[in-house]
Amino acid sequence: MAISINKSIKIIGRNKYKALKKFDLTDLSEHNLNLFSNEFNNLPVSTALRQIEDYEKKHITPQIEANKKYFDTLKKEAGKIIEVPQLTKNNLWNIFRQSFYKNENRNFIVNKTTLDNLQPLFYYFLGDKNFKKSKALSNLSSPSIDKGLLIIGTYGNGKTSIFKAFETALRSTNIGFKGFTTNEVVNRFEACVRPTDKDEFYKTMNYGTRYFDDVKTERTANNYGKAELMKDILEARYINKVRTYITCNFKEGADGDVELALLEFRDKYGNRVYDRLFEMFNIVVFKGESFRK
Predict the structure, then answer these.
(1) Is the pLDDT score of 157 beyond 90?
(2) For residue 82, is pLDDT > 50?
């Protein structure tokens, strides 16, 4: 009776996979094979190909399927978009509170500070001319409904939960948007393997109305080379003239100093991004202490 032998090779790590993929293993020239042999201690090409295959089955194929499912969902949702010609303050308030509770499993705290923080966002999404009179709106950027929103505040004072509630509330309307944390952006980029994956990634990040949470806190991305992704994305979105929403914290140790918080964009992303902030965004300053204390 023949004995079945499992010939599967132990799955290699990401660094080994990247190193192997740098070689064209279909090139059987003596020069290329010698280079390969010297690099990988006489590893047989057939073994290397099997290692690559096993790695991709475990790590790459599931990610590709997940990406495809995500983009299929986006396309499906795009077909369901409906226009909301008469969005009123009352019904926006109702769906905002419902959305906040749905996301956070708690009621939105209503007090003078939180209402002052909400005021410019409500006027903005309603297209109300009173937006320009909002208390939380900074005069560092000329106010305009046609610009995006850059919200600065203390760590934990509700920026993210409020904007996520608007994302949920406005879903499937003509003013809806899709949100990402900046570290989620980095993770999605680092999961890209093929050029087509990166094409889809940049289409998602560089077009359409998008919200990026916790800007300035993301790590440097690494995918066959290092990249400051948010720098590239903000520059592309400026060129593409698409609406962008951002939330970020004050500079550590300098709560309340809006100018220092903005200068951190220059330090991290360069002068070009910093200069364009004022053209791309209305600057909104959230008051109040952290709710996490």
Answers:
(1) no
(2) no
